[in-house]
Amino acid sequence: MLFERIESEGLAHYSYVVGDGDEACVIDPRRDCGVYQEMAVRQGHRITSILETHRNEDYVVGSRELAARTGARIWHADGHLAYQYGDAVRDGQEWMVGQLSLMAIHSPGHTLGSMSYLLRDPQGFPWVIFTGDSLFAGAVGRVDFVGEDRLEEMAGHLYDTIFTRLLPLGDGIIVCPAHGAGSVCGSSIASRVWTTVGLERRLNPKLQAPNRAGFVADVAVPLARAPYFRRMELVNLGGSAPMEELPVPEPISADAFAERLDGAIVLDTRCPACFAAAHIPGAYAIPQDEIPSFAGWFLPYDRPILLVADASGTEKVVRYLVRLGYDRVGGVLRGCMKAWHSAGRRGAHAGIVNPAEFASLLDAREQMFVLDVRSERELERVPAVKGAHHIHIIEIPERIDDVPQDRRIYVMCATGTRACIVTSLLLRAGHKDVAVVLGGMAGLERASRRHAPIAE
């Protein structure tokens, strides 16, 4: 028997492989789908079915890629939508995987046609429920994707799904959602790696509502929606051809890189200190591990991407981009910034300040413009430094005119990583004097132990 969960880093996306006998089924595959085939072959299984729990918004689903490799049949949820591939799932439909069985349970709320899949063991006993984006560890799915005018309607559907279809399955049933902690598809998903219906009944704050009206009032709220979500929705209906293999960007010389700049964007995925010290003018800075969280907020889709990346991390960067639908990676700078400078090309830089230096500046009551780009929830836990201006990172494009250009801007976040992203956005917008506070609030708190208090 094969039962594996595969996590896609950054997106906190969970997909699953279930196999028995000589058959296997994959639930909610990601686009770089070789991992599923490798697992199945290693266990002697052939992937025959691919099940989707809902039309996804935050990544490109890999069903078509996996079907092209394996010949498996695709079954998609949200059958009322205009899919260009696969077959629509019916409520109550069943599949046999060896001696195991899977049954579809209509689970509207996150989307109108969401499906959960109940896995039964060889004796026919309920064992696992794959809940998609309906029920998470410590949270429930967001209900704002259909439109803010239908928030209460969708929250009502989700209440019915959870309380009349999922919880009655029994406390011992293992819950396997489509996302874990850190996903944008639910608010405050808990870090419980594995959970059950019983644990969620007792511990999930959203399930403690006294009645349907209380649940709806708690859940029917709009959340931040990245601009790339709409593109993912269209792509996941079948709007683009499947990707056969993971693209391998061509390593190109500094001169060739410079020739391709017209019409392209430069994405620098190195660490904040590296970007601040030297980068190609106009580059977007998104450190490698932040690509899943922030590329879709800031990078356009209609232009090829040229990479400035550490050689050892290029494949990972491309995987992250492809999962978000960025297929036009036009090359990577061979030799990184050393090669760029050796070719006599013009470079740019940003300011850098370490936590101890920044604490000293604050202690000296310097007149500074400090831009804190953390979220409201982070500010509640760790307040901003006195006098800081707060603009959440995702609001920067719309509020960039709120940041003055006649003085030095010190950008900070929790660790310095998001500050690097915002620094690149400010530089692209024409700001001349921008500094990254390395280490962010975490470093500043430690450094400030030797200085006067810095927070109100």
Side by side, the strands of the main sheet go: 1-2-3-4-5-6
CATH architecture of the largest domain: 4-Layer Sandwich
Q: Output the CATH topology of the largest domain.
A: Metallo-beta-lactamase, Chain A
- The stretches of 5 or more residues where confidence is low (pLDDT under 50) are 452-456
DSSP E strands, number: 24
> How many helix segments?
16
Q: What would CATH call the homologous superfamily of the largest domain?
A: Ribonuclease Z/Hydroxyacylglutathione hydrolase-like
- The Cα radius of gyration reads 24 Å
Shape: globular
CATH structural class of the largest domain: Alpha Beta
Tell me what portion of residues adopts beta-strand conformation.
Answer: 15-25%
Q: Give the termini separation.
A: 57 Å
Main sheet attributes: strand count, strand direction, barrel closure: 6 strands, mixed
Counting structural domains, the number is: 3
Helix content: 25-40%
Overall average residue pLDDT: 94
Structural class: alpha/beta
